[in-house]
Structure formats: structure tokens, C-alpha cells
Design goal:
The complex is a heterodimer of chains A (339) and B (252). Chain A has six helices and 16 strands. Chain A has 339 residues and is mainly β. In chain A, the strands form two sheets. Chain A has an eight-stranded parallel beta sheet, with no helix packed on it. An eight-stranded parallel beta sheet of chain A has the order 2-4-6-8-10-12-14-16. Chain A starts with 24 loop residues before the first helix and ends in a 10-residue tail after the last helix. With 252 residues, chain B is an alpha/beta fold. In chain B, the strands form three sheets. In chain B, strands 6-9-10-3-11-12 form a six-stranded mixed beta sheet, with helices on both faces. Chain B starts with a strand and ends in a 15-residue tail after the last helix. The chains are: A mainly beta (339), B alpha/beta (252). The interface between A and B is medium-sized, with 30 and 34 residues.
Chain lengths: 339, 252
């Protein structure tokens, strides 16, 4: 197994706070692993897939009624697969959005487990559409690895959004394979404080012509929190007219907070449009002044601006699925589109 | 009684003195206009009176209804009844107009007024000003036209009902119709208890909000004061004739 454990020499792991040593958290999960679970739809050489050995892969099949009304499918951790007495939880989920269909999935991760290793494999068939939101609000001592494999068939579309607020540390890795004319939008945000750390990996592999991917990740970092954005755009041969963009924007609200942005491009076709960018900023004094000049206290004004920063993601939370209490505890008070 | 008094007020920006020993007293019910060309210090004056951190007040005193507000935080000045209608209201994507107005009114009015009442007042006032309700769901000043921005500033003026309002170049960026509608709204908010300071380049807005006094500002100081007729003189003769202007940088 030792060759499966990454090293700090690997660019992708140079800045992470996630321990990589044999005593570390990931390798602990690997300790009992022997072989890749072949039935699970994934790429080879994935170093922690073996950790899922023995885990039953759940299938997600929405009810006919839900499909008809295009309702949200709600994956709620305490009521579904994460309802486990195990303090170290492992789970795998697999589903297919059939040709021409449209699914909306909300994955709400909140539990008292110590750690979780969650694999999701999603296939969006030709012309099908997926809207997916992951809200992670695990306990503050939680550690997680969360992987989404998204396989987009020709002309498929997926909008995937995530928001990470909880956990001590974790790695969220989104890997997409994008076929001809398919479109993948990935928008995510982290809001971290104390010594929280989150790695976000966004790997977009374009495998067909005129495909599109657009990735934007917003980080709000307070105290000594830290984040890594690991972006990869890979365009294979014979994918002309492909467009791929990635961007990482960070609001650093403390001198000790830290972000590491690692954007990468591997392009094997000439006729493509690609871009990557990163920005790091603090709160805008003119925006703060404007709010305060209307009587809003400095603290409230700061909260409003912080919330506004991640609003491009937060505004898509299907709040109708959460109780008022949950909404309040998540701080979902700004209602951009409701008055 | 003076509703607003500025006494020997001096302001530095990045170490350079822009407002120099500026004094002005305004009685309740009065409208004063400050006119001046670009770079005369008008916006520095208004921003520093409200307490923008980039403007360094080096001396002087500002009184609102007899209370010294010079060293108060910006939000405290607003709660005491000072309002600044800004020349370039900043865009804040992700904060909706409705959420912003609710939060502002809650902060100014405290818990006395229930949230439902706050919502109602915002809706009613917006309706009166013919502002569509979708407007309240948009991000604050984000992608707004010049007219929309100034209309929103005026809506805030109307809702917050301050004791004293400084309107900094409210007429800039407005077409004739928008200017008329915004200016008439400001005029309708005149009252014996409230004072206004209208800051402008042009005389146009003063056709609708008729000032009691007009002051000409050059190089951070008032160089001439008079009645409303002074605005007309300026309109025809320009600022050049407003002597004496001591150009400190031009000494041989």
C-alpha cells in the first residue's frame, strides 16, 4: 500500500494540511485495503478507492412522482446512508440520470461521525440534465474524504454546487469526464474558521469536441483556517472548440489564514479556449462604509459582505428542504431573490 | 436652532490637506447648496463628514442637533440622523436591496418596529416612488443605471427620514426626466425639522430643490456665499470669476 500514499513532493499534496504519513488519517483508512473495487465506476490508480472494499454501493432511484414533478431528491445524512453507529463511516453511492431525464439532488452531510469516506459516482446520459448541491456541515472534529465522479455523456449537462462549512479537515475531489457537446458547471464555496482545513480538487477531463466546463470556487477564511484549490483542466486530443475555465476567489479575513491555489492545464488540442485565475482579497472598505453609513453596525456589515461573497453558491441551496431551525443554524438568512 | 454645524473642519487625504478650516452652519428647515468644480473638495467634505476611514479629519467639530458627532462611528452618525446620498453608490453583489434596506432600518429603528412593519414600509415607499418590487430582489447597485442608483439613494433618504441629509452630486449621471423625479422627491422631503446640504456642479437640480443659500467652494474652502441667485450667476459666468482664489502651487 505504501506506493498509494502520496508524498509532499507531489505538487498536489504540498500545501494540504491533511496528514499523509503512515500514522495519518488517509493512510489509516487504507490500512485494511487490498484491491480496487472494480465494480465501482472510476479511474484506475485512484489511491483510496481501495478503502471502500466491502462497502455496499447504494443506488439512487427517484420515485416516479418525484421525477414527474422534477422534485429535489434529498440525501440527508442522518436519515440515509450516514445513519450509522460507526464513528468512522464509509459509503458509496452510484446513480445514472437516464437519457433525456432531469434530476435534482441535494446532499446534506451532517453527522456526529468522527470521519467519513464517501464516494459518489454519477453518470449523466445523453441529453440528460443534473442539478446537484452538496452542503457539508459535519461536526467540527470531523474529517472527511468526499469524491464525486461525474461522467457526462454527449450533450449532457450538469450543474454541481457545494458548500463546506463544517469538519476539522477534509478533501473534496470532483472529477468529471466531459464528452462531446456536454457542459459541466462546478461552483463551490468554503467558509472556514479556527483551524479548519479543506482541500478542493476540481479535475475536468474534456474528451469530446465543443464541450464546456466552468469551475469557480470561493473561499472565506477566518482565524488560522486554510484551504487548497487544486484545479486541473485536461483536454484530450481531438476536442476542438472546447471551452474550459477555472477560477478561485478567496476572502482572507485574518493574517493567519492561508490559501494555496494550484491551477493546472494539460491541453492536447489546439483549437480551444481555456483560462484560469485566482484572486485573494479582504473586505472592501468602500462597501463596508456604504453599509455602515446606513446605520448598519460594523459587525453586521462584515457578516453581510462575507455572506454576499459566497452568495453565488448559497443562493442555490434548496432551502425549502431544510427546517427553519436548520436554516438559522447554517446562517442562511440572506434571501437574495426573495423579498 | 442650527440642525448642522461644521466648525473649523480640516481634512487630509493621503497626507495632503484637501479641506481647509471649513465652517458652515445650517438651521432646521434650510436647504444649502455647495457648488464647485471638479477637485474642489466637495466629495472629500461629504465623505469625511460621514466618517469614511480614508479621509483623515485633522481638526474641527461637527454638530448635529447640538450634539458633537465628530468622533462617532459612521453607523452611530447615521443612527443619530445624518444621511449621505452618495455620488457613486458602491455595488455590492450578493446583498439584495430588500435585505439591505431591512437590515438598515432594523439597525436604525431598533427592535421597536416589527419586521413585518419594516417590510410593509419599504414596499409602500417603493410603490410610491414607482419602483417595481423586482428591484428589491436585485443585488445592491449591481448593474444599476445611473438613474436607478440615485433613485435608490432617494428611497433610502425617504425611509430613513434623517434630521440632516447631505446629497452629494445626486444629479450626476441622470437624464432630464430622472433628474426631475429624483429632485422632486428630495424637495417633497423638505420639512421645518430637517436640513439639507445639496452638493452639485450645476444649477439644474436647484430648479427643483430651491436652496436658501448657495456657497461656492474652491480648493477646500467656501469663497463666496449668497442666495439662490448666486447659482444663476455661476451658471452664466462659471467658476473662474469667483475670486479671490489663492493658488498655493503657482507661486513663482
Amino acid at each position: 500500500m505504501s506506493e498509494l500514499i502520496p508524498s509532499r513532493k507531489d505538487e498536489n499534496y504540498r500545501y494540504t494540511q491533511i496528514p499523509l504519513s503512515s500514522e495519518g488519517w488517509l493512510s489509516e483508512k487504507l490500512a485494511n485495503c487490498e484491491a480496487t473495487k472494480e465494480s465501482f465506476h472510476t479511474w484506475t490508480s485512484d489511491f483510496y478507492i481501495p478503502a471502500l472494499k466491502g462497502v455496499e454501493v447504494q443506488k439512487l432511484i427517484p420515485s416516479r412522482e418525484a421525477q414527474k414533478n422534477n422534485e429535489w431528491i434529498f440525501l440527508r445524512s442522518e436519515s440515509s446512508e450516514l445513519k450509522s453507529s460507526s464513528k468512522k463511516y464509509r459509503g458509496a453511492l452510484e446513480f445514472v440520470v437516464p437519457k433525456g431525464k432531469s434530476y435534482k439532488v441535494f446532499e446534506f452531510l451532517e453527522s456526529n461521525a468522527e470521519s467519513s469516506l464517501l464516494m459518489r459516482s454519477i453518470r449523466v446520459e445523453e441529453g440528460a440534465e443534473l442539478e446537484y448541491f452538496v452542503y457539508q456541515n459535519q461536526a467540527l472534529n470531523h474529517e472527511f474524504v468526499l469524491r464525486h465522479f461525474v461522467d457526462l455523456a454527449p450533450s449532457a449537462k450538469a450543474n454541481m454546487r457545494f458548500f463546506h462549512k463544517g469538519s476539522q479537515r477534509g478533501q473534496h475531489r470532483v472529477t468529471a469526464r466531459i464528452a462531446k457537446d456536454a457542459e459541466f458547471l462546478l461552483e463551490g464555496a468554503t467558509h472556514l474558521e479556527a483551524s479548519q482545513h479543506i482541500d478542493v480538487w476540481a479535475e475536468m477531463q474534456h474528451e469530446g469536441a465543443t464541450s464546456l466546463s466552468q469551475t469557480t470556487v470561493w473561499n472565506v477564511l477566518l482565524d488560522q483556517s486554510s484551504a487548497v484549490f487544486n484545479g486541473m483542466i485536461r483536454i484530450l486530443k481531438n476536442c476542438p472548440q472546447t471551452k474550459a475555465y477555472q477560477s478561485n476567489k478567496t476572502l482572507l479575513l485574518s493574517e493567519k489564514a492561508r490559501v494555496s491555489t494550484i491551477p493546472k492545464l494539460e491541453i492536447s488540442t489546439d483549437d480551444v479556449k481555456c483560462s484560469h485565475g485566482a484572486s485573494v482579497s479582504t473586505l472592501d472598505p468602500d462597501q463596508l462604509f456604504y453599509l455602515r453609513s446606513r446605520g448598519i453596525s460594523r459587525e453586521s456589515a462584515q457578516d453581510m459582505l462575507v455572506e454576499a461573497f459566497t452568495m453565488p453558491v448559497l443562493q442555490h441551496v434548496p432551502k425549502c428542504l431544510l427546517s427553519e431551525h436548520e436554516q438559522a443554524s447554517l446562517g442562511l438568512k440572506g434571501d437574495l431573490h426573495v423579498f | 436652532m442650527n440642525i448642522f454645524e461644521i466648525k473649523n473642519f480640516s481634512v487630509n487625504v493621503e497626507g495632503k490637506e484637501i479641506i481647509k478650516d471649513f465652517s458652515l452652519s445650517i438651521k432646521a428647515g434650510e436647504v444649502h447648496a455647495i457648488m464647485g468644480k471638479n477637485g474642489s473638495g466637495k466629495t472629500t467634505l461629504s465623505m469625511s463628514l460621514m466618517g469614511h476611514p480614508a479621509y483623515d479629519v485633522t481638526s474641527g467639530q461637527v454638530m448635529l442637533s447640538g450634539e458633537d458627532i465628530t468622533d462617532m462611528d459612521t453607523e452611530e452618525k447615521a443612527r443619530k440622523g445624518l444621511f449621505l446620498g452618495m455620488q457613486h453608490p458602491v455595488a455590492i453583489p450578493g446583498v439584495s436591496v430588500g435585505n439591505f434596506l431591512r437590515t438598515a432600518l432594523k439597525n436604525v429603528w431598533g427592535d421597536k418596529v416589527p419586521v413585518t412593519e419594516i417590510r410593509k414600509r419599504i414596499k409602500d415607499e417603493a410603490q410610491k416612488m414607482k419602483i417595481p418590487s423586482e428591484f428589491l430582489s436585485r443585488s445592491l447597485n449591481d448593474g444599476f443605471s445611473g438613474g436607478e442608483k440615485k433613485k435608490l439613494e432617494t428611497l433610502q433618504l425617504s425611509l430613513l427620514a434623517p434630521k440632516f441629509a447631505i446629497m452629494d452630486e445626486t444629479d450626476s449621471g441622470l437624464d432630464i426626466d430622472a433628474l426631475k423625479s429624483v429632485a422632486e422627491k428630495i424637495h417633497s422631503l423638505r420639512s421645518p425639522e430637517r436640513g439639507f446640504l445639496i452638493i452639485t456642479h450645476y444649477q439644474r437640480i436647484l430648479n427643483y430643490v430651491k436652496p436658501d443659500y448657495v456657497h461656492v467652494m474652491i480648493n477646500g474652502k467656501i469663497v463666496k456665499s449668497g442666495g439662490p441667485e448666486l447659482a444663476l450667476v455661476l451658471e452664466s459666468e462659471g467658476y473662474e470669476g469667483m475670486a479671490p482664489v489663492k493658488n498655493e502651487g503657482a507661486k513663482a
